[in-house]
Give the backbone structure.
Amino acid sequence: MSVEPAAKPMVEGIFTPAGSDGLAHLLCSRCACGAVAFPARERCAACSGTDLVVEEVPNEGTIYSWTTSPGRTVRVVAQVQFANGLMAQGHVTAEPAAVRIGQRVRTVAVPVDYADDGTPLLSYAFEPVEEAA
Ligand SMILES: [Zn+2]
């Protein structure tokens, strides 16, 4: 999926469409105690510490669980487990029949809206990198 150069995240600080390796990454906070949080926090929920840094979450993760969101269009919402310890929720760019627990997914930037000046606004989603079968 190509992303127009002018496109930018709809909400800053949640994810980067092109991180240090050019791929999309969620942004989480990591506390000195090891706790990770998404979206990034200024105070740790585990130890109340404030020694937190923002880091890129690995581009790929594994579906831990998933469900469908109600609405006119059925959309898959998944909890995705990442190797840095983070569990994050987001939409999956696949039909329910093509999704399974344990499936590898990658973080991608998807256009969701336009700013008043026409700038495409992006959100993140998870895209399967392997078949569900
Ligand atoms: Zn902590």
About this structure: Residues 9-128 form one domain.
